[in-house]
Design a protein that fits this description.
Chain lengths: 115, 116
C-alpha cells in the first residue's frame, strides 16, 4: 500500500459543485501539504499544515479550503468549483526531524476536471 | 523569498546520449536542493538531494547533480540516458528556518524525452 493515498484519483464535475479531495498517510508525519500542478507552471502550494491545529495558506489558496481531521488525514475542498480549477492535485507529507530539510513524500495525484 | 528557474521546458535527446537539465535558484538563506522525477500518470518521487557536504550528489537511476553556490545552480546530469528516463523533472529549493522548518518551492519542470 502507498504511504500517501489520495481519493478520488480522477473526478469530473460541473461548475458550481462542491468537491472534496481526501488524503491519508501512514508515514507518521506531522506536516501535510496540498499542491496543484498545471502544465508549464510546476507545482504551486495551496495549503499546508504543520500539525492538527495548524493550517496555513500557500501561494494560491483562493477558492480552496482545507481540513486536518487527524494527524494522518488532510482534505482539500473546492466550495464552488470553476473551470480554471481543472488541474492535477497532489497531497504530500514531510517529517519534522532536525534539521527539517523540507523533503516531501507525494501521493499519486488526483486529476480534477471542472466542466 | 526563494525561487527556482528551470531553464529548459523541453529537452529531447537520443538514447545513450548525455543530458543536462539546468536549474538556477535564488534564496536569502541556507538552502537544501532537490530534484524530483514524475513518470507519466504517477506522482513525484525523489531523484536526489543536496543538504550539505560534497557538492556532487548522486541519485537513483544513474543521475547526479552538482551544487554550485557561486552560480546558484543545481544542474542535473546523466552520462547516458535510456528510453525509460522519459519523464518530467522538477528542481526544488527549500530554505531552512529554525523556528518554522522548511518549505519547498518548485521550478516549472523540464520534460525530458528520450528517442530511440
Amino acid at each position: 500500500d502507498a504511504d500517501v493515498t489520495q481519493t478520488p484519483r480522477n473526478r469530473i464535475t460541473k461548475t458550481g459543485k462542491r468537491i472534496m479531495l481526501e488524503c491519508s498517510q501512514t508515514k507518521g508525519h506531522d506536516r501535510m501539504y496540498w499542491y496543484r500542478q498545471d502544465p508549464g507552471l510546476g507545482l504551486r502550494l495551496i495549503y499546508y499544515s504543520f500539525d492538527v491545529k495548524d493550517i496555513n495558506k500557500g501561494e494560491i489558496s483562493d477558492g480552496y479550503s482545507v481540513s486536518r481531521q487527524a494527524q494522518a488525514k488532510f482534505s482539500l475542498s473546492l466550495e464552488s468549483a470553476i473551470p480554471n480549477q481543472t488541474a492535477l492535485y497532489f497531497c504530500a507529507t514531510s517529517g519534522d526531524g532536525q534539521p527539517n530539510t523540507g523533503e516531501l513524500f507525494f501521493g499519486e495525484g488526483s486529476r480534477l476536471t471542472v466542466l | 523569498a526563494q525561487s527556482v528557474t528551470q531553464l529548459d521546458s523541453q529537452v529531447p535527446v537520443f538514447e545513450e546520449a548525455p543530458v543536462e537539465l539546468r536549474c538556477n535558484y535564488s534564496s536569502s538563506v541556507s538552502v537544501y536542493l532537490f530534484w524530483y522525477v514524475q513518470y507519466p500518470n504517477q506522482g513525484l518521487q525523489l531523484l536526489l538531494k543536496y543538504l550539505s557536504g560534497s557538492t556532487l550528489v548522486k541519485g537513483i537511476n544513474g543521475f547526479e547533480a552538482e551544487f554550485n553556490k557561486s552560480q546558484t545552480s543545481f544542474h542535473l546530469r546523466k552520462p547516458s540516458v535510456h528510453i525509460s528516463d522519459t519523464a518530467e523533472y522538477f528542481c526544488a529549493v527549500s530554505d531552512y528556518r529554525e523556528t518554522s522548518g522548511s518549505r519547498l518551492t518548485f521550478g516549472e519542470g523540464t520534460q525530458l524525452t528520450v528517442n530511440p
